[in-house]
Amino acid sequence: MPKLIIKRDSEWANKMRSFELYLNGKKFAEIEDKKVLFFEIPEGKYQLIAKIDWCGSAPLNIQITEGEEKRVEVKGFIFSKYFLPLAVITGLLYFGIYFQYNINSLFLATILMFFFGYMLYFMSFGRNQYLRLTEL
Questions:
Q1: Residue 92, CB half-sphere, CA atoms under 13 Å: how many?
Q2: Is 65 left (phi over 0), alpha (psi -120 to 50) or beta?
Q3: Does 81 have pLDDT greater than 80?
Q4: Checking DSSP bridges between strand 60-64 and strand 131-135, what pairing results, if any?
Q5: 6-53: per-residue pLDDT in tens?
Q6: What are the C-alpha distances in Å from 62 to residues 4, 25, 45, 79, 108?
Q7: What's the rounded Cα separation, in Å, for the pair 82 and 78?
Q8: Which residues pair with 75 in a beta bridge?
Q9: CB neighbours (10 Å) of residue 119?
Q10: What's the rounded Cα separation, in Å, for the pair 60 and 124?
Q11: What DSSP string runs through 39-87?
Q12: Tell me: the pLDDT tens digits for 41-56?
């Protein structure tokens, strides 16, 4: 029987949350941080989607035949692994400088707004690209 293997790496933005996995529109599993799931499914054509709250992924169409093994990786939006830690560090620097020296750093404020604007895009208009499914 064909096997579908779904892998999820660790990332800061969604570390404490599970992703819901849908196969042909029906929820069939949830995957946690740093987990690998194995499924035996009948051969055929499938559409795989990952979701978290109102955000999700673009559909990944896969075709699997008898004896075949398909590997899929699910991740957050591009650069999500780096954006949350960098945004937190930038925010701490900005507020530390502001409260310690009473200096309003326009440079740090601009970088902070860029980080949050980028993340906000993937939570609103780009909500169907918040997660990424890639076939390995």
A1: 6
A2: beta
A3: no
A4: unpaired
A5: 999 888 778 888 999 999 999 999 999 999 999 999 999 999 999 998
A6: 10, 14, 6, 25, 44
A7: 9
A8: 132
A9: 19
A10: 21
A11: EE--SEEEEEEEEETTEEB--EEEEE-TT-EEEEEEEESTTHHHHHHHH
A12: 999 999 999 999 899 9
Contact (CB, 8 A) for 74 and 135 = no
Give the per-residue pLDDT at 105: 86
| Burial state string for 56-75 with b = 16 or more CB within 10 A and e = fewer than 16 | bbebbebebeeeeebebebb
Helices (H) and strands (E) in the chain, counts: 2, 9
Residue 73: pLDDT above 90? yes
Phi, psi of 24 (to 5 degrees): 55, 40
Q: Which two tokens stand for residue 62?
A: 């896969």
The label of the residue with tokens 């620097």 reads 93
Nearest-angstrom CA–CA distance, 22 and 29 = 7
